[in-house]
């Protein structure tokens, strides 16, 4: 595993559809609900909205993601804040770039705390100090 | 492959070092791996066997030598488990792709 930016998840995907259509799926609430989560999004900077999904009691998540629209450039960029109510705030950014007849969609989910316990766990596994945490991990893995 | 085997295999610094060598340098014979450890060759072979049983390495015979290579799948699973948000987004992007295909169907009507 190469050295990674532990504060962000960065993904990209080619979509065989033009940016205008991908943009609709990213910014029309009914369409967003179909691939992401039900929401009351509006394409206006400063608009606060929520995504709602199944609560996950095990990790203390009530099923509501609190967001605010931070930046919009039609058919090019959408940036929103993203908070599950417990953790520090994240920023989620979608960027669209035309690629052939389709679109390359870049997704950045930024703001992960490198001292977060999951990140620490990752470091321990690859770096050492594992046995002390073995029981906890083993238990967690068994519940997957 | 059970989670027990995977985690037990990763619990040893020597086995993590073997994985690192295979990851960075690609497949290689057991002998070349063993000569870089300050332990007996049978001990290194035993570590390689634990890694093999955990599904982390694959073994092929070439003449009298056993060659080992890294198997990525269990580590990918581990990564998904450690970074649930990455898996979440990969699944959502797949759903987005499917939705776009559906939208096209509607437009064509």
Automatic annotation (TrEMBL), chain A:
InterPro entries: ASHA1/2-like_C, START-like_dom_sf. Residues 17-138 form the Activator of Hsp90 ATPase homologue 1/2-like C-terminal domain. Pfam families: AHSA1. Belongs to the AHA1 family. This is ATPase.
Automatic annotation (TrEMBL), chain B:
CDD domains: HTH_ARSR. InterPro entries: ArsR-like_HTH (IPR011991), HTH_ArsR_DNA-bd_dom (IPR001845), WH-like_DNA-bd_sf (IPR036388), WH_DNA-bd_sf (IPR036390). Residues 1-90 form the HTH arsR-type domain. Coiled coil: none annotated. PROSITE patterns: HTH_ARSR_2. SUPFAM superfamilies: Winged helix' DNA-binding domain. It holds the Pfam family HTH_20. NCBIfam families: HTH_metalloreg. This is Transcriptional regulator.
């Amino acid at each position: 595993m190469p050295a990674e930016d532990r504060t962000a998840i960065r993904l990209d995907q080619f979509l065989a559809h033009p940016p205008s259509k991908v943009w609709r799926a990213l910014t029309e609430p009914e369409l967003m609900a179909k691939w992401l989560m039900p929401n009351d999004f509006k394409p206006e900077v400063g608009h606060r909205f929520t995504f709602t999904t199944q609560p996950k009691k095990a990790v203390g998540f009530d099923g509501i993601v609190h967001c605010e629209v931070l930046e919009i450039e039609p058919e090019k960029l959408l940036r929103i804040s993203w908070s599950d109510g417990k953790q520090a705030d994240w920023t989620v950014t979608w960027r669209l770039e035309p690629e052939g007849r389709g679109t390359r969609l870049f997704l950045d989910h930024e703001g992960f705390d490198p001292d977060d316990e999951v990140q620490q766990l990752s470091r321990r596994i690859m770096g050492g100090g594992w046995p002390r945490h073995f029981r906890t991990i083993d238990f967690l893995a068994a519940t997957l | 492959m059970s989670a027990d085997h995977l985690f037990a295999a990763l619990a040893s610094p020597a086995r993590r070092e073997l994985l690192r060598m295979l990851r960075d340098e690609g497949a290689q014979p057991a002998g070349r791996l063993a000569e870089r450890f300050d332990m007996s060759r049978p001990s290194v072979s035993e570590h390689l066997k634990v890694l093999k049983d955990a599904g982390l390495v694959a073994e092929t015979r070439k003449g009298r030598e056993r060659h080992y290579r890294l198997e990525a799948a269990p580590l990918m699973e581990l990564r998904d488990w450690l970074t649930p948000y990455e898996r979440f987004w990969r699944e959502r992007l797949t759903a987005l792709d499917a939705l776009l295909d559906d939208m096209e169907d509607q437009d064509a009507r």
